[in-house]
């Protein structure tokens, strides 16, 4: 089986390539230097004649604040890109897994979001991702949209690595304590994607549609940072002396963040038997990999 991964150099893409190859799958990873997914002609030309059994779109414009001033780039990658890939998959009669985000919800719900909750995106990044989801659903019948949240990994830029750098350099660090979500290790999400692919290969009448996958359990950004500090202390030397919780109002950003990003993941368990992993356990495993210099 051949699986093509767009956005192969991102957090999820790199974990997909690593885990897929470890499982003996034929993984073909592509990124922006190979094909511009926002360009329909580029997509058609690049994939013409390429044999593949599944396509996973892990490409995205994820700079949430930058999207507010670079709307054209955000919509090109997050809306036009998925639309072009969905049309390609429909033409080739292959399934598409598209990675989406908790930001499609406005964060005002008091409990966990389920897949049937209406989207209400706030901000450019959020709108571009919501419209990308809609394009995938409209243009390709055999699709799975996976909404996730608070991604981190040993690769790239993410909250965990940002906190580690701050802990090394600063004596005091303040972190928002009134936004809540589910930290998600990119390796766990990649594993879930490969398990979905394996099952849909065996069951042609797969349950296409929208699913949530995020780390098990809920915390705030401050709670997340506090756990990073506790777990990494045995590996690292930090200058930090005080970690302070603050409200969102004391840390204004160009793009509004959802107050509540908690995702209910029961649907993916019912459909595919995929159990989410406690976020603290995954964070511990990620930090061990990071400090051991594992790929």
Bin the helical content: 40-55%
- Strand tally is 12
Largest sheet: 6 strands, parallel
How many distinct domains?
Answer: 1
Give the N-terminus to C-terminus distance in angstroms: 24 Å
Strand content range? 15-25%
Structural class, judged by helices and strands? alpha/beta
Gross CATH architecture: 3-Layer(aba) Sandwich
Radius of gyration of CA atoms, rounded to a whole number: 19 Å
Regions with little confidence, pLDDT below 50 for 5+ residues: none
Count of discrete alpha- or pi-helical segments spanning 4 or more residues: 10
CATH superfamily: NAD(P)-binding Rossmann-like Domain
Explain what this protein looks like in three dimensions.
With 295 residues, the protein is of the alpha/beta class. It has one domain: 3-Layer(aba) Sandwich (Rossmann fold). Helices cover 42% and strands 16% of the residues. It contains ten helices and twelve strands. The protein has helices spanning 11-22, 40-47, 64-67, 71-92, 124-139, 159-169, 186-202, 221-232, 266-272, 279-292; strands at 2-6, 26-30, 54-57, 96-101, 143-148, 151-152, 172-176, 180-181, 184-185, 209-212, 219-220, 242-246. The strands form four sheets. A six-stranded parallel beta sheet has the order 2-1-3-4-5-10, with helices on both faces. A two-stranded parallel sheet has the order 6-9. The radius of gyration is 19 Å and the shape is globular. The mean pLDDT is 96.
């Amino acid at each position: 089986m051949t699986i093509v991964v767009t956005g192969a150099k991102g957090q999820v893409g790199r974990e997909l390539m690593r885990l897929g190859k470890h499982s003996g799958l034929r993984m073909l990873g592509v990124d922006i230097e190979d094909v511009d997914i926002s360009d329909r002609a580029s997509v058609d030309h690049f994939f013409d004649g390429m044999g593949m059994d599944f396509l996973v779109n892990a490409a995205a414009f994820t700079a949430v604040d930058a999207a507010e001033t670079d709307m054209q780039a955000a919509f090109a990658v997050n809306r036009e890109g998925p639309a072009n890939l969905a049309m390609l998959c429909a033409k080739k009669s292959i399934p598409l897994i598209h990675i989406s985000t908790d930001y499609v919800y406005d964060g005002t719900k008091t409990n966990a979001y389920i897949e049937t909750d209406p989207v209400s995106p706030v901000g450019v990044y959020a709108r571009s991702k919501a419209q990308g989801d809609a394009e995938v659903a409209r243009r390709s019948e055999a699709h799975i949209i996976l909404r996730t949240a608070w991604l981190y990994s040993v690769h790239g830029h993410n909250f965990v690595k940002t906190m580690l750098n701050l802990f090394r350099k600063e004596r005091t660090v303040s972190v928002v304590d009134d936004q809540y979500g589910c930290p998600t290790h990119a390796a766990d999400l990649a594993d879930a994607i490969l398990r979905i692919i394996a099952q849909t290969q065996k069951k042609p009448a797969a349950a296409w549609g929208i699913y949530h996958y995020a780390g098990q359990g809920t915390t705030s950004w401050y709670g997340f940072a506090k756990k990073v500090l506790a777990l990494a202390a045995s590996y690292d030397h930090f200058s930090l002396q005080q970690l302070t919780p603050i409200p969102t109002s004391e840390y204004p950003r160009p793009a509004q963040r959802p107050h509540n990003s908690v995702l209910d993941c029961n649907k993916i368990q019912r459909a595919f038997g995929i159990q989410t992993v406690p976020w603290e356990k995954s964070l511990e495993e990620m930090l061990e990999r990071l400090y051991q210099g594992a790929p």
